[in-house]
Amino acid sequence: MAELILPRSDTAGATDVGAAEFIDLMLTEWYDEPQRAMFLNGLADVDARSRELFAKDFVDCVSLQQADLLTALGEEMTEASRIRDQVAHGRGAAQAAPRSFYAMLRRLTLTAYYTSEAGATEELHFEIVPGHYDGSAEAGISKAPESQ
Q1: Total domain count for the chain?
Q2: Which of 2, 78, 108, 125 has its CA 20 to 30 A from that of 17?
Q3: Segments in the chain forming alpha helices (H)
Q4: What is the mean pLDDT of each run of 10 residues along the chain (148 residues)?
Q5: pTM of the predicted protein model
């Protein structure tokens, strides 16, 4: 699923940077039991939808079928977020970010990608060693004239 969110192009894809391993590590070592259960239930729901629509598990579907399922999940996530925003606006209070499987999957996939070496360097053009920095020039401080 992560590869469908960030496929390989002229840059690395989610699979290339180990997004699945990152997601597994985060679920195992970082998230609490209710969050893990929500994610695993979401995966089971994707397979149930896939079996209902295509008579096979998600991983056995062709890429177009997989994309259709993820598109539907994205539309549901967007609609739920829109409704929460309307309700929050009516009450004058901000609501927390949506807590859905697909939102969690997307967030983890993007985090895995953009914190990887390939994502940071190829996409974000992150440089570990920046160029020269002259603090006095930035602060508008001029150097004292040389004595003659």
Answers
A1: 1
A2: 78
A3: 2-5, 19-29, 33-54, 63-91, 101-114, 117-118, 135-138
A4: 90 89 93 92 94 95 94 90 74 55 92 82 69 62 54
A5: 0.71
